Amino acid sequence: MCNAIGLLQQSAQPAILPGHERLFSVPVKNENIEFQPKDLPLLFAKLIAKSVKELDTLIDRLPNDDQTAETDVAAIEQLSKANQNATKVFQEAHESCQNLLSRVQAALKDISECEVYTERWDMQDATS
To answer: Which of 45, 89, 97, 126 is the most buried (most CB within 10 A)?
Structure first.
């Protein structure tokens, strides 16, 4: 579509509509922006490109006619299986973390018991 507009801009001869001669002799004001008529083709091209992008976005968001209830059910089942696998991996990781936590807590308990024993031993040596 943009290529067609570009070809028209390049090959079409400029024409002045009767009663609109003043448009080409003075700048046109639009939304407090002043531009010359030579800027109009660029503006039109930008507006057309913007409209095409919006149309593409709208078309992409339309529901897919190829999908049926069977394909939806199959997709949901596939997602359910993936969810179950992810849950299993999460539970295994959680159990592993729980085991590591209990090992760290046991090591901390051993360290604190060793410190208490060492302090008692040092106190006995100091008093002897």
So the answer is: 45
Angle at 58 between CA 56 and CA 59, to 5 degrees: 65
The secondary structure element, H or E, covering residue 81 is: helix 69-127
Candidates 4, 7, 2, 10; CA nearest to 45 is: 2
CA distance 113 to 116: 5
N-term to C-term CA, the chain: 101
Residue 89 is encoded by which pair of tokens? 């991996």
Q: Structure pTM?
A: 0.40
For the chain, residues with pLDDT lower than 70 are 1-40, 64-67, 128
Q: Is-contact 24 16, C-beta < 8 A? A: yes
Cα–Cα separations (whole angstroms), residue 123 to 36, 54, 113, 127: 97, 83, 15, 6
Q: Which residue has the tokens 């051993």?
A: 110
Whole-number Å distance between alpha carbons of 125 and 128: 5
